[in-house]
Design goal:
By secondary structure, this protein is of the alpha+beta class. The chain is built from 3 helices and 8 strands. The protein is elongated and about 65 Å long. The structure holds zinc ion (ZN). Zinc ion binds next to loops.
Length: 130
């Protein structure tokens, strides 16, 4: 059975710097994972989970993230951002009766947004921040 090591946050960030220095854009999360694992590979093999890699990439400030989503019919309230884990802000509108109505949610950290019908992320595009 092959054994894999889990790289530290610092090693993943260093790897992201190297990868982004040679290409301005990586057009999927799976591709980014492959690139990082290949970059870290030496005598030992490394594994990095895709959600963890995405969180580290967002926190690093190295990339601008484009989030592609598909629409669903699912209506469910959201607290945490499904992309980066930050707390979501409600998007509200005033009603004619002076109250407010929730229209959806948005994330101030990664720019994910959704209406009450949930938008589910399907693809991430990582672009080097200039
Ligand atoms: Zn977010």
């Amino acid at each position: 059975m092959p054994s894999y090591r889990i790289p530290s946050d610092d090693r993943v960030r260093d790897s992201l710097v190297r990868i982004l220095s040679t290409r301005p854009m990586v057009d999927s999360q799976r591709r980014l994972k492959q690139l990082v694992e290949k970059d870290l590979k030496g005598d030992e093999k490394y594994r990095v989970g895709e959600p963890r890699l995405r969180h580290l990439a967002i926190e690093s400030g190295l990339v601008d993230l484009e989030i592609r989503c598909r629409d669903t019919e699912e209506m469910r309230s959201l607290i945490k951002c499904p992309v980066c884990g930050a707390r979501l802000k409600k998007v509200r509108n005033m009603t004619v009766y002076g109250g407010t109505v929730t229209l959806g949610y948005r994330c101030e950290r990664c720019k994910y947004w959704t209406g009450l019908k949930r938008r589910v992320p399907t693809r991430y595009i990582f672009t080097r921040r200039s």
